[in-house]
Amino acid sequence: MYDSLGPRGGGEMDPHNKCMGGRVWCVSDICGIICAVMTWLLVTYAEFVVVTVVVGTANYPIYTTLNLLLFNVFAVLALSSHTRAMFTDPGAVPKGNATRENIQRMGLREGQVIFKCPKCCSIKPERAHHCSVCQRCIRKMDHHCPWVNNCVGENNQKFFVLFTFYIALLSLHGLFLGIYQFIICVKSEWRECSSFSPPATVVLLLFLIFESLLFAIFTAVMFFTQVNAIWNDETGIEQLKKEQASWEKKSRWRSIQAVFGRFSLTWFSPFTSPPLPTKTHSYMYAV
C-alpha cells in the first residue's frame, strides 16, 4: 500500500515550499504575502514619521540621538525576526515519506500504531498537525500566522516570539513619541513642530499613534500567549483543542530551552538559530 507513494529517503531534497533553488523555505500564499508586505510598509511608515516629524524637528540633540537610535534598533530587530520567521522551515515533514521502507526502518513494536496524514501522505509525528495553507504536516505546529506568511512550529517559534516582542517594544516607543510630539505641537500652536503643514502633521501623528496603539496591544497579547504556551509545553492548537498530553511534558525551564537554547544574550537575537531537534528518524525531516 505504501510503495505506491514513492520511495522517499532521508537524503533526498524535498522540493515543496522551497524557492531560490531549494535553499529557502517560502509559502506561496497571496494573503500571507500581502500581510507580510503590509508589516514592512507599516514599520517603514512609522520610521518615516519618527524621522521626519518627531525627532527631525527636535531641538535637543541628546533626545534626538537616543530616540532615533533606540527606535531603529527595535525596527531592525523586529524586521530581522520577521524575516527569519517567514523564511525558516517551521518543521515540515517531507511529503510522501510514508513508504514501506521508512515504516520498517522505524522499528515498530508489535501493536504499536503509527499515524499517516492522508493529505500529504507522510508519517505524522507526535504533536504534528497538517496546515492547509502550507499543505504540509508541521512538527509541533502552534498556528499558521499570515503576518509572517508561515506556520509557527518547532524550528521558527523563537523568531516568531522575538518578532512579537520587538514589534511590541517598537509600537510602545512609537506611541510615546507620537503622543509627546502631538503635545509639543499643540503647546507651540503648530509652529516649528514639523516641516509639514499643520493638517498633514495631524494626520501623520494620529495615524502613527493609532497604528502604534493597535499593534502594541495585538503583539503584546500574542507574545504573552506564546510565552505561556512554551512555559506549559503546549502549542496553540493543543491548548485550543484541550488535548490530553500523550507526550512526556518537559519541565518549564527545559521547555523554554527547547525553543531558545541555553540562557544567554542569544535568546534575544534573531541572528542566531534555535537548538536543532534530535533527528531520531532522518526521513522525518526535510533536507
Automatic annotation (TrEMBL):
EC number: 2.3.1.225
Compartments reported by the entry: Membrane
GO MF term list: protein-cysteine S-palmitoyltransferase activity
Superkingdom per UniProt: Eukaryota
PANTHER family registered for this protein in UniProt: PALMITOYLTRANSFERASE ZDHHC16
GO annotation, cellular component aspect: membrane
Pfam families xref list: DHHC
Record note on domains: The DHHC domain is required for palmitoyltransferase activity.
PROSITE patterns in alphabetical order: DHHC
Record keywords: Acyltransferase, Membrane, Transferase, Transmembrane, Transmembrane helix
Sequence ranges assigned to domain Palmitoyltransferase DHHC in this UniProt record: 117-242
Organism field: Scylla paramamosain (Mud crab)
Membrane topology listed for this record: Multi-pass membrane protein
Family, as annotated: Belongs to the DHHC palmitoyltransferase family.
Ranges that cross the membrane: 30-54, 60-79, 159-183, 203-224
Protein name: Palmitoyltransferase
Catalytic activity: L-cysteinyl-[protein] + hexadecanoyl-CoA = S-hexadecanoyl-L-cysteinyl-[protein] + CoA
